[in-house]
Amino acid sequence: MKRKQRNGYLLAGGILAGFLAAVILLGLFWTPYDPAAMSVGPKLAGPSLLHPMGTDNFGRDILSRVMQGAGTTCTIALATVAIGAVAGTLIGALTGYFGGLVDEVLMRVGDALTAFPSILLALVVISLLGPGKKYNVVVALGLVFIPSFARVTRTAFASLRDVNYVKSARLMGASPWRILVVHMLPNTTSVLLPALTIGFNNAVLAEASMSFLGIGVTPPDASLGYMLSEAQSMLTTAPWYAVATGGTIVLLVFSVGLLGEGLQRRDKGVA
Amino acid sequence: MKKHLMALLLLVSLLCTVLSGCGDGSAEQTPEDRAQANTINVGIAQDLDESLDPHKTVKAGTREVMFNVFEGLMKPTSNGDLTPAVAESYTVSDDHRTYTFTLREGVKFHNGDAVTAEDVIYSIQRCIAPAETGIVPVEAFSIITDIQALDERTVAITISEPSNEFISYLTTAILPADYDEQDTAPVGTGPFRFVSRTAQDSIVLEKFDEYWGTPANLDKVTFKIIENADSLLMSLQSGAIDLCAHLTSTQVAQLGEDFQIEEGTMNLVQALYLNNAVAPFDNELVRQALSYAVDKQGIIDLAFDGYGSPIGSSMYPAFGKYFDESLTDYYTYDVEKAKELLAQAGYPDGFDMTITVPSNYQPHMDTAEVLVQQLAAVGVRATIQPIEWESWISDVYTGRQFQSTVVGVDAANMTARALLERFTSTYGSNFINYNNAEYDQLFQQALATYDDAEQTALYKQMERNLTEHAANVYIQDLADLVAVRSGLEGVTFYPIYVLDLSSIRYTA
Amino acid sequence: MKYAAKRIAMLLVTMVIVSLLAFVAFDLISGDPATAMLGTAATPEKVAALRAELGLDRPLLVRYGEWLVGFFTGNLGISYSYGQPVWELISSKVLVTLVLSLMSFVLIVAVSIPLGLRSAVGGGKLEGVRDGVRTVINQLCMAVPPFFTGILLSWLFGTVLHWFIHGQFPGFAHDPLGSLGYLLFAAISLAIPRIAMTTRMLRGTIREELQKDYVRTAISRGNDRKGVLRRHVLKNSLVVTVTFLAQTMAEIVAGSIVVEQVFAIPGLGRMLVASISSRDYPTVQAIVVILAFWVVLAGTVADLINQRIDPRLRLGGRPV
To answer: At B87, which helix (H) or strand (E)?
Structure first.
């Protein structure tokens, strides 16, 4: 009974995520219509056989745009998590292992970054890199995500510092670098893996919020967040637009959430 | 667990009903309350300037609101003429150099003082050579050589050279001379008086009972500042506000039958403004090619549901006599012709370009999105670069670091000069770097002419010059859609960016 | 006591970093206050003059030092956009945001702790199914973008049901109860995803604790289940929970910036967005410092509480 349950999350999440991934991959090569082409149908038409998700205010096919937008969103989220995880783990490992003043300073900076409004941070990034760049959102969000990854990994590394096999490695004269990468990193996956899935989901949602505040992906490129913030202004006249984009975000986050849930339960052996 | 959840939900919903039931009586919460109290709430999308002193006004949004509080010697009418306001009448000397104004009897400031000749002289001198920081000087006043009071109710202004536009600038607000709190508690002579302002929240105006002219119909008007467009719309629907101007056709479509929609014009020249000093837009052929490649009506239909008037130069239809309709179709939409011109200019395969757009102006963003599609048809690969309005001001408008931009340019007063002078080569805010000797010369001639017909003809030639050389890709004058709650009437449109509240009233 | 002193010193250091970060940010963001204030009337000469008047032509560290001195003498500066002392401008908004975030914090605690406990202890015949349903609902609640929850709630309760008038925030001075009612909806939309997360976290932590040997032993020895739960499991899970709730405060504050836009609430978050776009830096600076202080304070308080619960915790060795 319990065994079945924990496989259930992995399986359901896997199927859902796999399906979405397939659609996104397909969207890279083929979409029913050109996602940017206007007037392929009437403006703001409801779902029909020709346009299963309806059309938007420029008469663009929403399904095609959702396929492409989901790809953009995933790319942003993956890149954000990559930046956050790599830099965060690096910082977390160093501070967790060595401790001391560097640890103290970096953790304070991390606290400060966490408490700093991300909208202001995003504007700084945009001003530094120049407006309209696709990677602006990624850099800004990545910066925001570093402290949380650093904090998670730091605790894990700190707790491993005094474990026997690390001690023995140190006694045998292994370099700190080798200890960190070979002996400690593989043992932090139980903390890192769930952090990655949660991070991915937070990144998707954060991108949507950024788009809502008007700093995110630039048109005519569409991300799900951008489209949702556009759709909300047509909530009563074209509810399908919000349902299609919002629904896709929910599905995406939901499927990854299930995966994370499954992974965590498998690791902990707790149902 | 379900039972608990249900109980919790019930509790929350009960709490909500109780709490929301306890509105207080002092502020009029619902539209019905406001109708009873003969007052309305108006939604505006941005807060006003730091100072409410009309001589320091920078934002169009401030002018729009404070139009109801201030008046000049003259005041604009809804059909584009001027009518005497604080002045009762005026005469012009035979050499066209001395204007003699007779002040209207019984005009009072909101603080109860009567308007005197001294106040008029103070107000105009204040804008000639500002002593106080923050005052925006009126350029046209630089030709004033003398201003004096002939008696308590008569003021004579002498100018160095005849100018038939001078009178238009006398809409400059008349303020009491011995009052120094204009910044925070402004005092004027208009149909409404200023009551209070809460930063980032609201501005309250009240009917001025001692107004000299047709009194306002409403007793009180509260402007509510709601920056977020969707929130603005929801406030209309929920009943927090009764009137809101400058809505988009998409927004208007969301409103039910509780609202009437009045359609006017925004009085802006919306165009794809091209930086004439950078490649490839330093090439006239390229600019012309783009003008052929853009389908104005297509943009209006696609992005604006058909609301909007196509234009062909830096002038919009509400300006009446200065507007040259024939320029609108000077470049008829023609993809082949555009490609031909591009090839001729040395870009047979098109080029890449960036369109910088202030991201908080949805109409301009929408226009740019359609433009990208239309330009793609002739091989021009455009990308949109959204930036904040404040960055637009510093980077594009004053810094001139841009390739092309979609914005709307407005006129601060009702003169053709306000729209056309900005493209003369030496003008400080000629942000597109237009540099055309003939254009500059035409402008000098127009300034020097006193004959109205001749001057109008010269201005029209300037417009034609802009069109022929394709200074910009002109698109439209945006429609101004105003939503008014049913039961209210009297929205009046002006050829400048103002919202006249005095004519608005509750029916029956 | 020494711990507390050190923790408060850490708080101060973090706040200095935050305020300095904000100052550096203003210098980096394009579009300066002078140009923003002059608008289309800006010319290079006027901009330069205004910059000098505002003191923006002086080096960054000088300006920062001056601000710091002002801050400690109770002077937050004068707003560029309103010419009023910043504190006068934001004092009423501080209260609104404070109430909003406290409200949603209370909601989170009040709802998720019983839910989390119940789901952790669980048991019974249909436990497997119930757990599945709970997990799915939980994940769904976390999957909706917060601003969208806000829009839906605001549309449902404001436009359709008319339980509150969107855009008509009464203000605490006029009508404290009505204001609370208005904020409640925003607080709920802030709370929903965090309730799901907190419930899930609680459940996970308690379950983990329950699996530990000492609990099993205690129960198998015949100690009553509830007693063990209360004495050991809850106490040990508390440290993690307190830390988690402190982080929740940070997310509530970040979320309030968005939610205040959606519900047209005149709070700090909305003021922050508006002041950033008008480049009203003295106001932005003050708001950033206040919001950050709120977040950092929550973290500090959490650490202090945790140290009370479990005095073995050292500084820097706090669990995440």
So the answer is: strand B87-92
**CB-based contact A57 B250, cutoff 8 Å:** yes
How far CA A142 is from CA of A112, A159, C18, in Å, comes to 15, 26, 18
B459 CB-near residues (< 8 Å, 6+ apart): B322, B416, B417, B420, B446
Q: Which chain A residue is nearest to residue B382, measuring alpha carbons?
A: A220
| pLDDT at residue number C100 | 95
Mean pLDDT over C176-201 rounds to 90
- Both tokens assigned to A141: 């969000």
Nearest to C80 by CA among C46, C42, C53: C53
Q: Provide the CB-side half-sphere exposure for C282 (13 A, CA).
A: 25
Cβ neighbours of C157 in B, within 8 Å: 16
Instruction: Report the side by side order of strands in the sheet with B243-247.
Output: B192-198, B202-207, B220-225, B39-44, B243-247, B479-485, B259-265
Higher pLDDT, A158 or B382: B382
- Give the SS3 label for residue C256: helix
Tokens, residue B424: 């003369």
C29 CB neighbours in chain A (<8 A) are 120, 123-124, 127
Q: Give the DSSP letter of residue C85.
A: B
Residue B486's region, left for phi above 0, alpha for psi from -120 to 50, else beta, is beta
CA–CA separation, B178 and B160 (whole Å): 29
Question: How far apart, in Å, are the Cα atoms of B408 and each of A103, B263, B411?
Answer: 53, 18, 10
First to last CA, chain C: 22
DSSP summary character for residue B384: E
HEC-encoded secondary structure of B15-46 = HHHHHHHCCCCCCCCCHHHHHHHCEEEEEECC
Residue of A nearest to C125 (CA): A1
Q: Is B477 helix (H, G, I), strand (E, B) or coil?
A: strand
The CA-atom distances, in angstroms, between A129 and each of A207, A225, B25 are 18, 22, 52
**pLDDT above 60: residue A119:** yes
Given this model, what pLDDT does residue B9 score? 56
Per DSSP, B101 falls in state E
Q: Do C184 and B234 touch (CB under 8 A)?
A: no
Nearest residue to B433 (alpha-carbon basis) of B272, B286, B281: B281
Bond into B280 cis (ω within 30): yes
End-to-end CA distance of chain A: 10
Residue from A16, A123, A248 to probe the interface with C (highest C Cβ count within 10 Å): A123
Q: Give the 3-state DSSP-derived string for chain A, with helices as H, strands as E and coil as C.
A: CHHHHHHHHHHHHHHHHHHHHHHHHHHHHCCCCCCCCCCCCCCCCCCCCCCCCCECCCCCEHHHHHHHHHHHHHHHHHHHHHHHHHHHHHHHHHHHHHCHHHHHHHHHHHHHHHHCCHHHHHHHHHHHHCCCCCCHHHHHHHHHHHHHHHHHHHHHHHHHCCCHHHHHHHHCCCCHHHHHHHHHHHHHHHHHHHHHHHHHHHHHHHHHHHHHCCCCCCCCCCCHHHHHHHHHHHCCCCHHHHHHHHHHHHHHHHHHHHHHHHHHHHHHCCC
Say which residue, C37 or B231, is predicted with more confidence: B231
pTM, full prediction:
0.85
**Helix (H, G, I), strand (E, B), or coil: what is residue C161?**
coil
Q: Which H or E run contains B483?
A: strand B479-485
**A167: amino acid identity, one letter:** K
Residues A266 and A115: their CA atoms lie apart, in Å, by 34
pLDDT, mean of residues A223-248: 87
Cα C86 from Cα C105, distance rounded (Å): 27
Largest CA distance in chain C: 85
Q: For residue range B191-204, what is the model confidence (pLDDT) as tens digits?
A: 999 999 988 889 99
Asked if residues C285 and C77 have their Cβ atoms less than 8 Å apart, the reply is: yes
- B370: three-class secondary structure by DSSP: helix
Q: How confident is the model at residue B84 (pLDDT cuts 50, 70, 90)?
A: very high
Contact C237, C245 (CB under 8 A): no
**For B330, which DSSP code?**
S
